[in-house]
Amino acid sequence: MQRMPYLFLFLFTCIIYSNTLWNTYAIDDALVLTENKFVKKGFDGIKDILTHDAFEGFFGQRGSTLIQGGRYRPLSLVTFAIEFQLWGLNAFYSHAINVFLFALTCLLIYHLLFLMAGKEHDGPFYLSFPFIASLLYAAHPIHTEAIANIKGRDEIMAMLFSVGALIFSIRFAKSNHFLDLFFSILVYSLALLSKENSITFIAIVPLSYYFFTNANKKQYMAGIAAFLIPTILFMLVRSTYAPTGLLQESREVLNNPFALATKGERYATIVLTFIYYLKLLVFPYSLTHDYYYNQIPYVTFGSVGTLFSLVVNAGILAYGISLLRKKSVLGFGILFYFITFSIVSNLLFTVGILMNERFIFMPSLGFCVVIASLLSYRQLPKFMNPQVVLGIFTSLVLLYSVKTFSRNYAWRDNFSLLQADVKTSTHSSKAHTTYGGLLIDKADEQKDSLKRKEILEESIDNLNTALKIYPNNGDAWLLLGNATYKYNKDYKKAIDAYVHAFKSKGNGNFDALYNIAVLQMDNNMPAMAKSNLIKANTLRPGQFKCLFNIGESYCRINVPDSAIIWFKQALLLQPNDALTLHKIGVTYGKQMNRLEDALPWLDKAVALDPGNIVYLEDLAVANGLKGNFEGAIKAAQAILQINPNYASAYYILSTSYLNKGDKVSSSKYLQKAQSLQGKR
């Protein structure tokens, strides 16, 4: 019978998250996996993962300064690197590992609570405190973000190893075996390397000893030291590889939720979120991954919501403290919740977003312990029928499970997630921005022109909504420029949007300047385009597309010498780019009349892209003008192998044979060329 709870929990957890296995990648999966340069090196990237801020693999060196305090959580990234080495980008395996790790976490939670409860777990296992708490934790919908989103593995692993370390620590307190203490140090080190919020378990250890063991003073000191020593070592390593200080706050409201708030508004709004978290724990109905500005508007301490939250949370905390003397499981659950919640609450330091459901992946165990302590067999009042309690418990688990299973579908991919969550995060500028950008991508895939315009209209609506919420949203302005131009080719409106994007980014937005220049090139303003491209190049040097287009702009204003210089700079970045090689050849040949210099570049372009008719035609013409008629004939014949009805190739053959003195062949090809041209 003792195996039954473990088996049931494992199968139950796997079943309710089974539909995530067919999900692809979403949101921050790009940051940690699909577009992380360290992870995509496989085994060779593990050293870089262990010696850099978690964001550097995606953002480059600037990634370490984007978020206050930096991020050092390499262990989940190491697992992603191993997966990439073994399977490449295969979302099925990544989701399967997340589900397995979460199922294992739920088993360890049951084992921990079973170990803590001691003789208090008698009675039917399905009405026991450990089983009720563990099953509620497995079923709770608020955990979907951590499990259904591959990136959430850092949360799962942090909880898994923290609980595992606590199990060894409790065993040490009960048995005094120092091997258990050694394993607690080892496993807790893995928890810290998974995610920083594991640090709160330094306080959970003495709390657990007090409630559930008869540990003596030496055991208390040893147990705390076993968690404190790896924490100190971790903080030293972290300060080396994630050097951004906790006081270095971003001025961008989408990275720092309090950038536009007064000090009073900051803390009043933080307190307000406390009641929202409790609401989601009790009624996890309207779930969303996005609580960015201005989904939860700033409030003051005069706000009814803030005052209500303050009274409720302070009351619950005070009640939990009052239960210390009784050593009540209910008190342990309350204190566990507030201790583990403290580090993600924004009270101590900014965590980059005002609120997020994955932040209470760890604290929610305290909530489940509280509910379980009220429903478990040993806690039931004499007048309450166990079957009634079983019905309440079953109904709660069933409701949670249905919500969890259905919510998993929203995480299928970026588009599904944003399509669902933009309806919940109606006041989030970021949600509308991201959804607007995804709609642009969807419009690009649409062949039906009317449907494409409908999708672009929806994109423009969402981006305008994002800008109403936050007028300085540079990303929204940038995407609005893209959508506007794709919608009706109104380059003036599009450029105006890009100008706003440039200003919103503090005169440092490469993409805005580059896009302005591209539209200027497309609309016959090459001189203005050149100026903006050169400015863009100073903002972000070494961008191939920018260097190439600077060369193109010089071609358009007929300064071929400068064009060649910029094209050759672009080639340093991509030496085998056929288009750039072709442009150099054409510039030498057509604009500078230097055929001898043109031919080697055109030859290289054709060698790299032998199926490109334009390249072959220019090579044929250049050879003909240079007097290399055999070379011209060879290139023209190569064109006809690709397209037998290409009239220009026959004209080239006619001219080449005529220059060789073969009038018969010349006449034959001329007639063929004229007949094809006549058919047009």
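(the above was protein one; protein two follows)
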Amino acid sequence: MKRLLCLLVGSIFMTSNIHANTNNSWAEQVLSQLTLEEKIGQLLMIDSYSCLSEQHLESVETLIKKYHIGSVIFHKGNPETQVAWTNQLQALSKYPLLIAQDCEWGLNMRLTNTVRFPKNMTLGALQDEFMIYEVGQEIGKHCRAIGVHLNFAPVVDINNNPDNPIIGVRSFGSHKEDVTRKSILFAQGLHDGGVIACAKHFPGHGDTAVDSHEDLPVLHQSYERLLHEELHPFKVMIDMGIPSIMMAHLSIPVLDKTPHQPSTLSRPIVTDLLRKQLHFQGLIVTDAMTMKGVTKFYNPGQAVLQAILAGNDLVVMPVDIPAAITCITQAVHDGILSEQELDEHVLRVLRAKEHVGLHKNRFVDETKVQDIINSDKAKILKKDLYQQAVTLLRDEQNIIPIKNIKKVGLLQVGGQYDQQLASIVGGYEQISPVPTPEELMYVARILNQYDTILIVLYTIDKTMGFFGRIASISQELTNIFDGFRASGKKVGVIACMSPYCLKFLEQEKTVIMTYENDPDALQAGLDVVMGKLIPSGKLPI
């Protein structure tokens, strides 16, 4: 607890002068040299996929050179190619590029052959919260090792809607104080690992039932509710120095009555609420402008201009670069966007670059990448996190620990046949999430010879939108679970999936939650079953 309190107190220094008003800084010197076109380019972040062809890279290079683009966000690919492309893009750019990526649970969120750390919901179950700082720091080191300076993490949304299709397990949980505290620790870890943390999605995407990738969600909340719930993590993190915040694409009538107005494009929300009322002085970035929460109601050029007029400093993934630049340039000439306001936005971007040392070195040392991003330390930390998160929700039958696992029948639902898992139990069967009647009859016949049956539920939820998944268990599975109980079997469930599946497991008397279907998560669940691990996790919802 002492080391946790020290971190919370120390986190007021999180910004480390990222937006300090220093005279004659590198950022101010560069700003004084920029043309209007170069200033506009500094406000735009284009995307790149290192999994694509060289032709794609050439198109990115063209945009950077022709339109003086100042930032790049990488998506899917592999670390080796991304590092090589980063160095190549940095070499051709007149000014250093700010490189960003979504690495909420580490590089593996986007890149192959990297360590996949637990998602926020799993981290939310940890009782040793210092470990959240540790994983944030490790992810920060991995980001810097491949040339990423801005990690669009952590997600600080309070997931207070169980049917949320876009946040869900990306949140630390449904309790605002827990989410706030753990978000601060993760962000401080990222900072100490060398990257800029970005709290998202302002003013709070947790209580939505619509994916903003697919449409514009509408939040019908009172101002008091927003202030005391959704905004709470952001307010505390602003006071403690969070350096960057990402806007959400949400319609919030109580804050802006303009029809179909995404919060990203709303001056009452971006400038009046975030900048003036909450006194945030750091870098404000948009969510991706390619999302339908924006594109459904705004044309590409006007959307980017509106985002800047609303108060954003960095516009992520504009749909049409030439149209955006034309609109911004015309707005400056017409006096709609003042040069002073434009300079303020550009200066914040340049200060972010200076903060991460891009004025000194913009290139990545390719020889050290693998030693850092796939270190033994990272793999051990990942395993420890799953072990500390595993949660024994109930054991009304007192079957945990199971002393002789060879006398247990195991039913795995979803996933692939697991030879190692099959070798440790008496009987092993694997079926699909929606089994046929023939599968059910066969499984029942094989497993009914065991008095104790262990059911491993892999992620068998249904996809809802780009990121979100809603936990779901088929009626066929419910029937077979009921059948086992009716025949007097002792049934234990290891749920390797979202904790929102628990509404389907209310009849089960023994439930272990691992939160994810990672091999290390399953092993932690099995270790609890066999008495090798005392579970210490606590349900975060």
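Reviewer note on protein two: The chain is about 40% helix and 10% strand.
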